[in-house]
Specification:
Elements (H helix, E strand, L loop, with lengths): L10 H5 L4 H9 L6 H15 L12 H22 L2 H6 L13 E4 L8 E7 L12 E7 L19 E8 L3 E5 L9 E5 L3 E3 L5 E4 L21
Antiparallel strand pairs: 1-2, 1-8, 2-3, 3-4, 4-5, 5-6, 6-7, 7-8
Helix pairs in contact: 2-3, 3-4
């Protein structure tokens, strides 16, 4: 323990208090380190690796050496937050779901006037390490009308509905798998501010309300029970 009020301590002498060999041995022998262990070890090892960068001048007061030393350790800590604890960095990026996500809502499809087109954005399953993926799940439920018709005049039954899923990519793109409807498995839908634009030029225009007459009569919202 050093009384800095009574002693002049250089950065190098302060650094010498770090049990370097113990730190390396401890870090390299962790079999399944947690995020906190990885963060602690990364800071310590980066500080050890930076020791050669410390310029010691015995004629300078402790305050100068202390600034040099903690400047290096502070930089190492900042880098370690990203490299050793990615979950903490990812947690700072909110994943918008539900009404907060622009894709979420009901749409008009010009290729199927009056037919149901509902998009729901829900959170992706949490990964094994406890972190949440940087994307959200997209669920699209629709109805194309009776066979041979392109306009929906009657309300569908639950059995008439189809569903495709996908995931978001950033804030303005979603990858959708239409293979269950005989289409491509990686259709990219882009949000343009008022709707979703597809590669073929078709655009689903977002509605500011949810038309009940496009849903089955025994279902006021699509979240009520299984489809």
């Amino acid at each position: 323990r050093v009384n800095i009020a009574r002693h002049r301590v250089t950065a190098s002498s302060l650094y010498s208090l770090i049990p370097r060999q113990f730190t390396k041995l401890y870090c390299y022998n962790i079999h399944s380190p947690s995020n906190m262990n990885r963060l602690t070890c990364t800071i310590a090892l980066l500080a050890a690796a930076s020791s050669d960068a410390l310029v010691t001048n015995q004629s300078k007061p402790f305050a100068s050496g202390r600034r040099n030393f903690f400047g290096i350790v502070g930089g190492a800590a900042a880098a370690a937050v990203v490299t050793a604890a990615p979950g903490a960095a990812n947690a700072a990026i909110p994943i918008k779901t539900g009404p907060s996500n622009p894709f979420n809502g009901d749409y008009d499809d010009p290729n199927h006037p009056g037919c149901l087109r509902q998009v729901k954005v829900v959170g992706a399953p949490i990964k094994a390490d406890g972190s949440r993926p940087l994307y959200a799940i997209v669920e699209v439920t629709g109805y194309d009308g009776k066979e041979g018709e392109t306009t929906c005049k009657d309300r569908p039954t639950r059995g008439d509905l189809w569903k495709v899923t996908g995931k978001t990519k950033g804030k303005e793109e979603a990858f959708l798998d239409f293979s269950s409807k005989g289409g491509p498995a990686d259709v990219v839908g882009k949000w343009d501010g008022s709707g979703i634009v597809f590669p073929d030029g078709n655009k689903w225009t977002k509605l500011n309300y949810a038309p009940k007459n496009r849903r089955p009569e025994d279902m006021s919202t699509l979240s009520e029970g299984p489809l």
